[in-house]
């Protein structure tokens, strides 16, 4: 079939919205009519090259839609089902998947190729070339073909423009607190960055019983949003955050520090380590540029005070379990998705959406793919 998609042909270029040819789904695959997709910092990393991938590529990884057709052997979903996508592919068979760590599936290694999970070929074509898919999804499109393993059925009463956010930013921020940080009721929590991931870390910290939740962001508008989502204090930089944490905790510092800034940098980790308490844990869920980076840490402080650094991908969660759980919390009024959406865009306006993302104009922008 013929449909439209937003493609990056070369690094540093804008998205090109143009017609593509879409093959029918093969065994274990489904065709989905995309309804909504979030604009995420990772999409911007794709255009700059910070996130390695094959080119040309259809962007987008944080989406929701309606199943239109299924290939042979598909049992998980049927035409008409509403689905949210797991932004990390999974096979369901490797030791990571079998032990409940679907976010660390052995098949993650194929994600950079952008080809289909089952056979590493392409179903998407334009200008007589095969197209890769971001996270094997390609949600910046009106339709896509993808593995049923990345489709998570959701109840039809959940608005898909809200549900799409749970695919990446929500599960990442929420899970970094409830799964990766080891939070206990009464802990003091610092969230570095109050963007799309950070506000969900704040909500999770509040839900899990955080006592003082201190959000750090340089933008006054993001500080206001942090307070709306449950932060008790805000700061505009690392130094001010340290002084605030030190004062409020009477020198005890923060047991949990969640790093959600747009791009992780080695130069901020030592100041973050400084504000972490004895036996405290720092969770890094920000994406950094691929490859090694210079890093200076006080290793004496790290060892003597038994502080911990951990990384967290997709909230260290199992999306098959976590995404329905998060949407249940939304339905029950315990997770605020509505206030996260600052503006919606059509697919044709995707470049303006990316500009607004980079300039910090939105908390979350959502593309309504069928408009």
UniProtKB/TrEMBL annotation:
NCBIfam families given in the database record: Rxyl_3153
Native species: Haloechinothrix alba
PROSITE patterns for this protein: ADH_ZINC
Domain Enoyl reductase (ER): 12-368
Cell wall biogenesis/degradation is among the record's keywords: no
Superkingdom of origin: Bacteria
BP term (GO), one: formaldehyde catabolic process
Required cofactor names: Zn(2+)
GO CC list: cytosol
Family membership noted in the UniProt record: Belongs to the zinc-containing alcohol dehydrogenase family.
One GO molecular-function entry: S-(hydroxymethyl)glutathione dehydrogenase [NAD(P)+] activity
Name of the protein: S-(Hydroxymethyl)glutathione dehydrogenase / alcohol dehydrogenase
Keywords, comma-separated and alphabetical: Metal-binding, NAD, Oxidoreductase, Zinc
Pfam families found in the cross-reference section: ADH_N, ADH_zinc_N
